[in-house]
Amino acid sequence: MPEPPPPPPPLPPPQAANNRRPHRNARAEYFEDRPPALILVKFTMTDTEAKDVPASIETHIERVLRWLIAGRPEDFLTKPLFCSPPIANSPQLRCGRRAYYARLAVPDVSPQFPADPETLSAALSAYLGARVEHLRVLASGWETTLYEFELLHRSASLPQLPARAPLVLRFYPSVAAADKGATEFRTISHLAMAGYPVPRPYLFEPEGAAIGAPFLVMERLGGGPLFAIRSFPQAFKTFSMGFLGFVRVQVRLHRMALGSSVFEAPRTTAAANHPNRPDAARPDQNAVQDGARNSGQNTQQSMQQNGAATRLLELTLRTLAARVEQGPLPGLAAALEYLRRRAAEFKDAPPSFLHLDYHPQNVMVSGLRVTGVIDWANAAIGDRHFDAATTAVILSTSAMEHPRWMRDNAAGNNLRRTFNALYLALYQACAPMDLRRLRYYQGLAGALRLSTLGMMRVRGPQSVGFRPGAITEVTPSVLRLVSGYVARKTGTAVTIA
């Protein structure tokens, strides 16, 4: 695996015009250094100096930035992304007491893997031993970019890969990339063996030498996402036809009886999942069966006694506590205290297979039929109420700038309420839930999501395993919606500065 790039060098000596510093207290603080996802530029001023600030605060900040990054302007994007509360009619800046802040993103380009399709196609062809054709971007998410491609002919070294069939390449560029990819590979291998609708995984490469980052090659599913945003009529039609199937497939996941080796699926190391290694961990045909005919009931009782749901709950609370402390995210401290205090009431539950990112854009449909569920990097074993609560949080708080009808406005808020109410009603009809337990897990799932957004804003997306460009998804609208949701479910004051 290639060595990570070194931290950015110290800022060069100031080289401003006429050798004058634009501001004597200007300085830059780096939040991330592989490469930095965000930098925060802070400069303070006395009351006297404040009188000399140009009418356009943005012009002044741009002048400061040019001085700070003199000699390396290509390393940064010079447009601040956001800041709150706004000043000078600009949503991009924040005013503190005699201090101004500008938050900037660096280009979303990593030197560790090819940035252009031609280079990537050549590297992948060399690794697979077959010519890669028609490689193009399929979708971009918070974590990575997905590519679709085909092989011109069957690979001699990897004969399990079909020729002339649509395939998907998924990168894992985060710090915990190899283990995250191993989790997804192992999980969907088990589920595919059980006949659950997932893309068939062909190989997982845990090393970064081949194309610069660990990657997974899997089947390209037919159909499209349940939630399509091309137009409202198209979205309404697709959503209406596929939503019942969306709920039923999740309920089916939660009802699957668990064989003993399934418990290890989300925790398998990356090295165990390489298809060409003699010690590769292979999916056990009997590990996950919808009926688990022989030992499923005993195994499920054993896992409940061993506290699978308890362990996941405790891990989630530890993760939340670490983010509150390290962010820091003091506005979530009261919600965390409430969730800790109530945890003992909900720690024991029958174990279920959980997706923990189950939402309409991760479920592929064709008409009334669900063709597959994707993005299993967060899969775990625990209380099914946690998974249902996570879906409810996403449906209730996902605001988008485009299309207009999904913004934080009257139309968008009505749609989100309708989606959430319909989802909970259908799930309750298919698999009745304990509503007190559901409400607790809604608070927990909401707080976890808000802590993720808070860390992205304060420490950068890479601090929680996302690509730098994901920061554009952390909008004031989303923060407002998620904060309000957590406050309602926990009965505490919740803020993200």
Question: Mind explaining what this structure looks like?
Answer:
There is one protein chain. This protein is of the alpha+beta class and 497 residues long. It has three domains: 17-105, no CATH class; 117-219, Phosphorylase Kinase, domain 1 (2-Layer Sandwich); 224-490, Aminoglycoside 3'-phosphotransferase, Chain: A, domain 2, CATH 3.90.1200. It is 37% helix and 14% strand. The protein is built from twelve helices and 14 strands. The strands form four sheets. The chain has a five-stranded antiparallel β-sheet, with helices on both faces. Strands 1-2-4-3 form a four-stranded antiparallel β-sheet, with helices on one face. Strand 1 (27-30) and strand 2 (38-44) form a beta hairpin. Helix 7 runs antiparallel to helix 8 (333-342). The chain is globular, with a radius of gyration of 24 Å.
